[in-house]
Amino acid sequence: MSNTSSPSTVSMETLAALCKRRGFIFQSSEIYGGINGFWDYGPLGAELKRNVRGLWWREMTREREDVVGLDATIIMHPSIWKASGHLDTFADPMVDCKSCKSRWRADQIAEEQGKKIEIEITEDGKKHYKMPAGVKCPKCGSANFTEVRPFNLMFATHVGPIESDDNKAYLRPETAQAIFVQFKNVLDTSRQKVPFGICQIGKAFRNEVTPRNYTFRSREFEQMELQFFIRPDEAVELICGHVAQLTPDTDLSEPHADWGWEIWHKYWVEKRLAWYRSIGLPKASLVEYWQAKDELAHYARACVDIQFAFPFGIQELEGIAARSDYDLTQHHIHSGKSQEVFDDELKAAVAKLDDAARTAFADKVAADWQAAGKSPEAAHTFCAKLFDGRYIPHDIEPSAGVDRLVLALLSDAYCEEKIADDKGKEETRVVMRFNPKVAPIKLAIFPLLKNRPELVAKAREIYLSLRSRWNVFYDESGAIGRRYRRQDEIGTPFGVTVDFQTLEDNTVTWRDRDTMKQERVAISELATRLQNAETGKQ
RNA sequence: GCGGGAGUAGCUCAGUGGUAGAGCGUCACCUUGCCAAGGUGAAUGUCGUGGGUUCAAAUCCCAUCUCCCGCUCCA
After folding, report:
1. What are phi and psi of A330, to 5 degrees?
2. What is the CA A464 to C1' B29 distance in angstroms?
3. Would you call A107 helix, strand, or coil by DSSP?
4. Which residue, A73, A158, A206, A390, has most beta carbons within 10 Å?
5. 10 Å Cβ neighbour count for A359?
6. φ, ψ of residue A290 in degrees (nearest 5)
7. Through-space separation of residue A506 CA and nucleotide B72 C1' in angstroms
8. Predicted local distance difference test score (pLDDT) of residue A54
9. On chain B, which bases lie within 7 A of the protein's CB atoms?
């Protein structure tokens, strides 16, 4: 991963200090010395994070007819992790070179040197790895390794009162599998049909070797993800007679029936990028990174990382993977429960073909599959199912880290300005330039002076009239300028001040966080202004 | 987990064996007619934690936890 420095000037230390000082983020269990890789969100952080989740949920399901939500458990049947491959691939055997102190994946360096790592399974089912003789450290050439130790990234626990291997369970290392294993239930109950998606927001856990970069890599984190299920390209071809080709001119604004996985994937990449921009992340700080073929997971056809220029480097916010039918197929096989769907349109399209056309189609698919290194027999089985109107859907997965996005919003928002006061003395103004949509507090309401009961009463009245709809904040302590600055530092986009003129004509001064400009606004107009700020109209 | 650096008030830090400090912030009261004004007062630390050396430890020694940088991994 690149270490390109971000255009942002804020250091992680400065940002973390502000987050703690103002109550965005605290270290978990701090009074007991903290616990590595776990973070708590304070009052403002909790609001910020809720806003992010809310905006995502609204965009991904409420405002779409083809996506529904799910809220699944963190602990699930352990067989799920066997089927998904996490039990095997999440336990990396690691060694350290005692000579040069470098660390390696034992299986990888053994394989590179033409050897195979020895695995011994003990009676209690535990795996013991042994480095074969003759393997040398790729860095210094020494063969002086520590013992091979497995690092399983899944947190394990036991279900029920007795701890034994029979009731071992895991905290989910990703939310995706929960969606796959409920795919059929959702399909049967939601009156959706392919193509459609299931989205979920929830916690996931990884026992990371080294949590790092503030909240960026945590052991407990939250994901927002969509699994969008589509027809296999072969089914699209049978129904539409062709599969649309992705070109630079392809209109991605509305889905079309002739889209194959490639256009659907591109569609979601564009959708997600547009969403990040809509919540205030500038286009320039977002990077669309297309993984090279050799970086892809074995089941993935394509994967795009949406990256953000963090102060510590350009790092991933979201991955959008075309996962083929891999996951549902795994569960189809391991659970013994069919994950196939029946597609009326497909069945109707196939009914119009004669036997010769079907044979020709199946032969073409077999040839394509063979060219891609898959067996032609499997292709014929697949086509026989297709002709019956059945297939296992393919999947496009846009999967984002909530905590990472919150960190991106915080680091993007942070801004220090040099401004001169009326005496010409220069001072620094710290401003969190959150987009109003995500800002923890939308509006601060101040009486100009707190020792004038009539001003206080009016300001309280405005506060009480708005707070059921927006997170607004009332503050009467300190000089007015000081109160403005306090709000700047927590990113409140607007402030209104009740002064003596308010008592005469029901107007207040409306102060903009970014420009510091003030204008006279009727109290009756405040709700409209807040609503416009939230919908992006200004 | 390994190597390097660091932990003192909410924050930034001073304090190198002899009674725990500063600035900012926070809170209260006064003051204040629009951008961190001023005044008075207050709260907040068993100096990361545990042990040891010493008449005496924030300071020296050991262990441990946490944070930062690198290896590894990823949403």
Report:
1. -55, -45
2. 27
3. helix
4. A206
5. 12
6. -90, 120
7. 62
8. 97
9. 1-3, 7, 10-12, 25-38, 48-49, 65-75
Binned at pLDDT 50, 70 and 90, residue A266 comes out as very high
CA of A516: nearest nucleotide by C1' is: B35
- φ, ψ at A308 (rounded to 5°): -130, 140
Taking the model in full, what pTM does it have?
0.89
Cβ-contact A225, A203 below 8 angstroms: no
**How is residue A32 annotated by DSSP?**
G
- H/E/C letters for each residue in A186-224? HHHHHCCCCCEEEEEEEEEECCCCCCECCCCECCEEEEE
CA of A20 to C1' of B44 (A): 16
CA A446 – C1' B28 distance (Å)? 19
A293/B37 CA-to-C1' distance in Å? 63
HEC readout, A270-287 = HHHHHHHHHCCCCHHHEE
CA angle A319, A207, A115 (to 5 degrees): 85
pLDDT digits (tens, 9 = 90+) for A156-203: 888 888 877 788 899 999 999 999 999 999 999 999 999 999 999 999
Which of A123-127, A252-256, A296-300 is least confident? A123-127
Predicted confidence at residue A314, as pLDDT, reads 85
- Per residue in A471-512, pLDDT (tens digit) is 999 999 889 999 999 999 999 999 999 999 999 999 999 999
The 10s digit of each residue's pLDDT in A414-424 is: 888 887 765 56
HEC sequence for A34-84 = CCCCCEEECHHHHHHHHHHHHHHHHHHHHCCCCEEEECCCCECCCHHHHHH
For residue A192, the one-letter residue type is: Q
pLDDT in tens, A24-56: 988 888 777 778 888 889 899 999 999 999 999
Whether residue A341 has pLDDT greater than 90:
yes
DSSP string, A244-259: PPP-TT---SS--TT-
Q: In this structure, what token pair is assigned to residue A504?
A: 């005469």
Total length of chain A: 538
Question: What does R_g of chain A's alpha carbons equal in angstroms?
Answer: 28
Judged by C1' against the alpha carbon of A206, the nearest nucleotide is B74
User: Which nucleotide lies closest to A221 by the C1' atom and the CA atom?
Assistant: B75
Per CA to C1' distance, which residue is closest to B65?
A: A33
